UniProtKB/TrEMBL annotation:
PROSITE patterns on file: GGDEF
Enzyme kind, highest EC tier: transferase
Taxonomic lineage from the root: Bacteria, Pseudomonadati, Pseudomonadota, Betaproteobacteria, Neisseriales
GO cellular component: plasma membrane
Domain of life: Bacteria
Annotated GO MF terms: diguanylate cyclase activity
SMART domains from the UniProt entry: GGDEF
Name of the protein: diguanylate cyclase
UniProt GO BP: cell adhesion involved in single-species biofilm formation; negative regulation of bacterial-type flagellum-dependent cell motility
EC number per UniProt: 2.7.7.65
Length: 439
């Protein structure tokens, strides 16, 4: 894992743990209501429904006191504290609250049962002007005479069935809905329990988290998925870069290899060529000579050799200098080269001596060619207007070692020199070499 990713993973892990811990032990969101709260509070009793109960709403410091003289005139007599939180259009969202605590003391006859209503406004079924049309999410509880803090989970709320029936609410809207709450209410039980009921409310508090556990989990999952994608992308980029680098290295290596191969070829070539004339040297003909001699023997086709040596070349050097001698040698190689075909070989044997190999050429053919070259050397123009001549020794390969064949041509050349130079001497294959097949 790259360094950056490792650091990021550490940060992400720390962030996740911090968020989870914070959510568990902090991130609290509370809605506190008491007599000092600025919300509009109203006392409602059953007199509006034809009953005769009377309710008084008192503020005693932070405490809200309800004094309710309940009668049994109305079928479901009640006294009710209404707390208006906002207009229906700007109502509060209670869906992130988890529970509500009520510090309350209830004195009076009967069951001491209270009902807490969390009203929900939804334009799909409710009229903003008729608050009886707002959904009633309700819970009932019975605080002790001496007072206590009652804790009620919001999931204990249910929608009042009589409200569903009275308002003909379709099935799609009968579930508890804690969003969009314009009002809460605290009401007596609705049972016929005539007498004076005194209810002291120190506070009503809704508790929750800024962000629900599910939303936090979603955020964390989104974070980790983004991290994984980022890591993948980074990995992909690095892989691509590595691939490009290795391709670049491969190409550089290929270039280097081909340069080296070329250099090797050049060096090999240089080792087999005479630097002055550019024709092969002895080392440069060995392989071909072996191959051609084998071919000549197996095919029965003649392989001819011609030794050519410039006459009195020493005088050129002595009289005109070494440089002129070099020029003569270069031209001599060119003149010989211009007389041979593709597949023939021209070799500088050493000094002013050159050797030509003619595959598939009989003795007479090679001698005729040597004669042509001799005549050409005699008549052509040379550096320093020199007049040059050349002697030739010619033979063909018999059933003999290649060295014997070379030596015979050299002997023929020597004979040409001895006999006055500027001539061609041919030597046939001796009888012994014609009969046995020794190589
Ligand atoms: N300029 C030059 N001279 C060379 C080179 N290689 C050999 N020589 C000279 O060639 C001469 C050969 O002389 P010799 O062997 O006496 O033969 P020659 O003078 O040609 O006489 P014959 O062969 O008997 O006709 C020598 O003087 C060598 O120094 C070369 O590469 N350049």
């Amino acid at each position: 894992m790259p360094h950056l990713l490792r650091i990021l993973a550490l940060i992400m892990t720390a962030l996740t743990l911090a968020l989870l811990g914070w959510h568990e032990y902090g991130m609290d969101s509370t809605l506190h209501i008491d007599a000092h709260s600025t919300y509009l509070m109203e006392a409602v009793d059953d007199s509006s429904d034809g009953g005769s109960s009377k309710m008084r709403l008192l503020r005693q410091g932070k405490r809200i006191r309800i004094e309710c003289q309940l009668t049994d005139k109305y079928e479901w007599p009640f006294c009710e504290l209404g707390i208006k939180l906002a207009d229906p259009a700007h109502a509060l969202d209670f869906s992130d609250y988890d529970h509500v605590t009520v510090k309350v003391k209830y004195q009076g006859p009967g069951s001491h049962q209270l009902r807490l209503f969390v009203r929900n406004f939804d334009p799909a079924y409710a009229d903003p002007k008729r608050n009886e049309s707002w959904k009633i999410n309700e819970v009932a509880f019975s605080p002790k005479l001496e007072g206590e803090v009652v804790t009620i989970p919001l999931k204990s709320f249910s929608v009042a069935s009589w409200w569903i029936a009275n308002n003909h609410i379709p099935l799609a809207h009968i579930a508890v809905d804690m969003r969009n709450v314009p009002m809460i209410q605290l009401s007596t039980s609705g049972f016929k329990e005539p007498g004076l009921h005194v209810i002291d409310i120190d506070y009503i508090e809704f508790h929750g988290k800024w962000i629900s556990r599910e939303a936090l989990a979603l955020v964390l999952v989104a974070l980790w998925v983004s991290f994984a994608l980022f890591a993948l992308l980074l990995d992909l980029r690095q892989l691509r870069r590595k691939l490009l680098n290795s391709r670049r290295r491969e190409r550089a290596l290929e270039t280097l290899t081909s340069a080296l191969e070329l250099e090797n070829r050049k060096i090999g070539d240089m080792a087999r060529r005479d630097p002055l004339t550019g024709v092969r040297n002895r080392a440069g003909i060995l392989e071909e000579l072996f191959r051609e001699s084998e071919l000549a023997r197996s095919s029965g086709r003649p392989l001819a050799v011609v030794f050519a040596d410039i006459d009195h070349f020493k005088r050129v050097n002595d009289e005109f200098g070494h440089d002129t001698g070099d020029e003569v040698l270069k031209q001599f190689a060119l003149e010989l080269g211009s007389h041979i075909r593709n597949g023939d070989y021209l070799v500088r044997w050493g000094g002013e001596e050159f050797v030509l190999f003619f595959p598939n050429t009989p003795l007479e053919g090679a001698a005729a060619l040597a004669e042509k070259m001799r005549a050409h050397v005699e008549t052509t123009t040379w550096p320093a207007a020199l007049r040059m001549s050349c002697s030739f020794g010619v033979t063909v390969l018999g059933a003999e070692p290649v060295a014997d064949f070379i030596k015979r041509a050299d002997d023929a050349l020597y004979e040409a020199k001895r006999n006055g130079r500027n001539r061609v001497v041919s030597r046939t294959v001796p009888e012994a070499a014609q009969r046995n097949g020794k190589v």
